[in-house]
Amino acid sequence: xxxQKISDGDYVLIxxxxxxxxxxxxxxxxxxxxxxxYLKLDELIGKEFGxxxxxxxxxxxxxxxxxxxxxxxxSSRNTQITYPKDAALIxxxxxxxxxxxxxxxxxxxxxxxxxxxxxxxxTGKVTTYELRSEFQKNxxxxxxxxxxxxxxxxxxxxxxxxxxxxxxxxxxxDLATPWLVVPHAYEALKPSGILVSFSPTIDxxxxxxxxxKENNFVFIETIECMMRAMQVERGKTRxxxxxxxxxxxxxxxxxILKPQPEPMQQEDAIEQEENWEKxxxxx
Length: 283
Fold this sequence. Notes:
This protein is α/β, with parallel strands linked by helices. The chain folds into two domains: 11-66, Vcp-like ATPase, Chain A, domain 2; 70-255, Vaccinia Virus protein VP39 (Rossmann fold). The chain has helices at 68-73, 84-94, 111-120, 133-145, 182-188, 202-214, 266-282; strands at residues 11-17, 20-25, 31-34, 37-40, 52-54, 60-64, 101-105, 125-129, 152-155, 168-173, 189-199, 217-224, 230-231, 238-239, 249-255. Helix 2 crosses helix 3. The longest helix is centred in the C-terminal third of the chain and has 17 residues, at 266-282.
């Protein structure tokens, strides 16, 4: 059984209520300040995840073990993250699992990279391309926090000019011009490998779909996922007023082998040879 006790250096989700949660790193000798009083982090060390702890003002907080969703939603951001609702569908459509080889571009905050690295497991690998060094550095910090950095290779490069990897199981795209990457993704993927593209606008979807059709991909589908939470209370249960609506469109497709040219029929070959002979006689 995995040790559930909190150790020095662990990340802990401090829960006050559904609207107020805090991801903190437990460090001996430090305190964490909130509007409900401060917490002595020394007091967390050795506790079980799930145990309550009182602040200096006597307010009860709960210590929770961060989930994959927590690492994504609490990631350090210098650009928009991929929300869990979209990341979950991208993972499912990509077909990845333990041992999979995945290419991703662009890295951004590393939120989607975190999900991909989680699902490929310790025997898999995610290669993620990003042009902007400040994004790459921030993403590396987020991956280190979730302890998934060892499963990820971070590269600086422009995938619209080419992808170095070969025989990968999936290519995941979240960039402005995904249609320019489709031919390179075809070369990188295994036969029947899967491409998934996340785009905020329908114009991008149209262009990437056209590129997929032109480059021997089939089973092409685009979906949009919207998520609405419920306010649950006896006699007052109803959908919440605010919801996570449109974030982007997810397009996925599968690579097929390029059709081979049909062998020339014997009669066609004879006719072609006769035409060449006539041409030589009249020359």
